[in-house]
Amino acid sequence: MNALIKVSFGAMLAFRRHGEAEYTTADGTTVVAEPDAPRLDYRSDGAFHGLLLDSSETEEARIVRVPLFREGEGTWSMTCTLAQATPLSKTGMSKTLTGSGRLVFTYRNGIAKCFAGALLYEMPITEASVAARMTLGGRAAVHKLRYTPRALPDALAIAQSHGNFEVVPPEQIQRRSVGGRPRIQENGGLRVPEHYSD
């Protein structure tokens, strides 16, 4: 059960967006993606930035295919930049986060844990679900997403995770304003950190 099967974003996800949206190609050209077409964005140096997901653009990426998925035990690893986004929403083990790096989520024996170089949080979980969204709300650039059908030991999850993330308290989560864009608040605003590349 520990064998890994590589699955591309396209095979793992069902993607949706109501309108057109811009992104940057590997050669630095800004192009417009058609409705329902994913935006695989690149930085100015040509390095892959990630799959862009912006709630103000009504973008949604549902996880629909995960080989060897187990409801009682597993590990998700996500290299990403998040701005008030909830990674792996609908799995019962996620909170709204801001930050950049590699998150590792483990679940086993009714406990889910999130690591980012250290334990970020843990919470009870009744049953993990594969029917999840890659992220919910806010903005995100997801560089890599990986699933393993076993829960890593805490020490290994700490060693494989890194970056700087913070849990956003529910009262500080910014709601969409008129026009769909997140409001920028005076007390800190919506900061999108630099993407961490591994």
Account of the protein in words:
This protein has helices at 9-12, 154-160, and strands at 13-16, 21-24, 30-33, 40-42, 48-54, 60-63, 73-89, 97-108, 111-115, 119-124, 132-136, 139-148, 162-167. The protein has one domain: Jelly Rolls (Sandwich). Helix content is 6%, strand content 44%. By secondary structure, the protein is mainly beta. It starts with 8 loop residues before the first helix and ends in a 31-residue tail after the last strand. Residues 176-198 have low confidence and may be disordered. The strands form two sheets. Strands 1, 4, 5, 6, 7, 8, 9, 10, 11, 12 and 13 form an eleven-stranded antiparallel β-sheet that branches. Strand 7 and strand 8 form a beta hairpin.
Task: Spell out the blueprint of helices and strands.
Layout: H1 9-12, E1 13-16, E2 21-24, E3 30-33, E4 40-42, E5 48-54, E6 60-63, E7 73-89, E8 97-108, E9 111-115, E10 119-124, E11 132-136, E12 139-148, H2 154-160, E13 162-167
Antiparallel strand pairs: 1-6, 2-3, 4-5, 5-12, 6-11, 7-8, 7-11, 7-12, 8-9, 8-13, 9-10
